[in-house]
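Today's session is about reading a structure prediction critically. Students often jump straight to the picture, but the first step is always the sequence itself: look for stretches that repeat, for charged clusters, for runs of hydrophobic residues. Only then move on to the predicted structure, which in these notes is written as discrete structure tokens rather than atom positions. Here is the chain we will use throughout the hour.
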Amino acid sequence: MTSRTSLEETLDWDYKLVEFLIGAWGTLTKYSNVALDQEAHIALLAAQLPQKHYEKYQEKLEKWLHDNYNMIVR
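Below is the predicted structure for this chain, in token form.
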């Protein structure tokens, strides 16, 4: 299973939300401080989740980010 597919599954197949997050992370990664430790970087990435999805997906997204962190920061 690809990481994108696993993210879609984690977010209940909400393709628009996945597209939004990937775009936000791409933009954020260009400007994020490389001095951030893994926990701070994950918190920053997870914070890109839109408010209306926060309660439903925050914990799932943070777990997914922890599980896939090395792939994301390459």
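Discussion point for the tutorial: The chain has a mean pLDDT of 87.
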